[in-house]
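Async update (no meeting this week)

Hi team, since we skipped the sync, here's where things stand on the single-chain job. The sequence we agreed to prioritize is pasted below, unchanged from the tracker. I ran it this morning and attached the output directly underneath so nobody has to dig for it. Comments welcome in thread, and please keep replies under the output.
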Amino acid sequence: MTGLVFPFRALAAAFGFTIVGLLGFLFVPASWETKLPNLIFYAVLVLNTFYSVRFFDALPPQDRDEHIIDGVLTVLYVALAATIGVHLWFAIVSTALFAVAVAKYVLLLRVMDRHDILRTKILIDGLGLVMCLATLVATLVFDPLWSAWAAALVFAAANVYLLAIQPMYVDLAIGMSRFGEKKEARRAAPPRRN
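Output:
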């Protein structure tokens, strides 16, 4: 069961990765037109990361040790920001990032009881890995800029679906809906009389 926890780690991750992403956008020596699709992909990734960290931090057990793999993911986020506008390296690093993310949740299967949630996350991150691999191949074989735009648009559309339309970060075991705690509070409130 998930509980209400102040999302300090989620906010810190989103804030830190946003700053690093802006620095990458501002200081990587490439034109802004070249950087824009990578910036969109990175911004959507950071938004998704906020919700992911917030959701998984609330799941038991609270004392699980993810420091090493989270450290590797942090290094990959920084490397990804440093490659904004350098399409081949951005595709390489994003592929590595999704591979490590899949590995993280596969490893969590041994310490968390919520295999249903973990399998869904592994599937979704696995699809992200396949998309990044396809982007890497397309970057090598076709036009790198068009490949970056295709990845950014597909990733943004997928995240609209997975965050707003069919939210992936909900615990169905406690009846959470798209509207989260507000809808739950309405259900628990006494009925109104007309």
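Quick observations from my side:
The CA atoms of residues 10 and 50 lie 5 Å apart.
Residues 176-194 have pLDDT under 50 and may be disordered.
Reply here if anything looks off.
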